[in-house]
Automatic annotation (TrEMBL):
<keyword id="KW-0479">Metal-binding</keyword>
<dbReference type="GO" id="GO:0046872">
    <property type="term" value="F:metal ion binding"/>
</dbReference>
<dbReference type="GO" id="GO:0051539">
    <property type="term" value="F:4 iron, 4 sulfur cluster binding"/>
</dbReference>
<keyword id="KW-0949">S-adenosyl-L-methionine</keyword>
<dbReference type="InterPro" id="IPR058240">
    <property type="entry name" value="rSAM_sf"/>
</dbReference>
<keyword id="KW-0004">4Fe-4S</keyword>
<dbReference type="Pfam" id="PF04055">
    <property type="entry name" value="Radical_SAM"/>
</dbReference>
<protein>
    <submittedName>
        <fullName>Ribonucleotide reductase of class III (Anaerobic), activating protein</fullName>
        <ecNumber>1.97.1.4</ecNumber>
    </submittedName>
</protein>
<dbReference type="GO" id="GO:0043365">
    <property type="term" value="F:[formate-C-acetyltransferase]-activating enzyme activity"/>
</dbReference>
<keyword id="KW-0411">Iron-sulfur</keyword>
<keyword id="KW-0560">Oxidoreductase</keyword>
<dbReference type="InterPro" id="IPR034457">
    <property type="entry name" value="Organic_radical-activating"/>
</dbReference>
<dbReference type="InterPro" id="IPR007197">
    <property type="entry name" value="rSAM"/>
</dbReference>
<dbReference type="InterPro" id="IPR013785">
    <property type="entry name" value="Aldolase_TIM"/>
</dbReference>
<keyword id="KW-0408">Iron</keyword>
<dbReference type="InterPro" id="IPR012840">
    <property type="entry name" value="NrdG2"/>
</dbReference>
<feature type="domain" description="Radical SAM core">
    <location>
        <begin position="13"/>
        <end position="232"/>
    </location>
</feature>
Length: 232
């Protein structure tokens, strides 16, 4: 595993659980609003080393009684070839719950993890309507993301689908298309954009959406989805 960092305690990443958050290095998307752009390159810059797995597991050994689970985020965790073994170790040796954050571009691997019963909570970004996905992901991944979305919606998993909404990139019509394409999903979160440390420097000057605009998006999404929440 290429581990990029560790947040030792979080009460907000894993719903209803206290979790440690571990960040993986490397992502196959290039979201202009990404806050973790240093995690996008698969290879670390010269002189920078990834966090040894031993450091992470030594930490878990000392803290496991204070934690309910571990959130694995990125970057894109599904790019890590040994993710399954890493998750198995956390589950079997430390008996902790697992939350996985993903961009869903690898349905085969996702299916394997679901079938192995390794995911207690899954959070997947649905970033745009399918027609607009090419703004931040290679075109050959779009059919895979669609496949993952269908797999998740059909599963018994505890999951959320979510969209980070950015002025200039998302509007009511776009939210309507996103909600329509994930009709039947259990939970959908509309997350407000924050202009902090974004991959595209121009977005650092962009505003966030106003509460009234987010509420309008929520009402629009509710035409297709039963459970829509705003994260502001
Ligand atoms: S998928 Fe996540 S980590 Fe990857 S570029 Fe987009 S926001 Fe950043």
């Amino acid at each position: 595993m290429k581990l990029a960092g560790l947040q030792k305690t979080s009460v907000i990443d894993f719903p209803d659980q206290i979790s440690a958050v571990v960040f993986t290095q490397g992502c196959n998307f290039y979201c202009p609003y990404c806050h973790n752009s240093q995690l996008i390159p698969l290879k670390l810059p010269p002189g920078k080393e990834s966090m040894p797995e031993k450091y992470f597991f030594d930490f878990l050994k000392t803290r496991k009684n204070l934690l309910d689970g571990v959130t694995i985020t990125g970057g894109e965790p599904l790019l890590q070839p040994d993710l399954k073994e890493f998750m198995l170790k956390i589950k079997n040796d430390y008996e902790l719950l697992l939350k996985l954050d993903s961009n869903a571009a690898n349905p085969k691997k996702l299916k394997e993890l679901i079938e192995a019963d390794l995911i207690d909570y899954l959070a997947v970004d649905i970033k745009f309507s399918w027609a607009n996905y090419g703004k931040l992901a290679p075109n050959d991944l779009i059919s895979k993301i669609k496949k993952s979305a269908a797999l998740i919606i059909d599963s018994d998993l505890d999951y959320e689908l979510r969209t980070t909404v950015v002025p200039g990139l998302h509007d009511k019509a776009e939210i309507e298309k996103i909600a329509q394409q994930i009709e039947g999903a259990d939970k959908f979160f509309i997350q407000n954009f924050r202009p902090i440390n974004t991959l595209d420097p121009d977005l650092r000057k962009q505003r966030s959406f106003a509460p009234s605009e987010l509420e309008e998006f929520k009402i629009t999404a509710e035409k297709y989805l039963e459970n829509v929440e705003i994260r502001d």
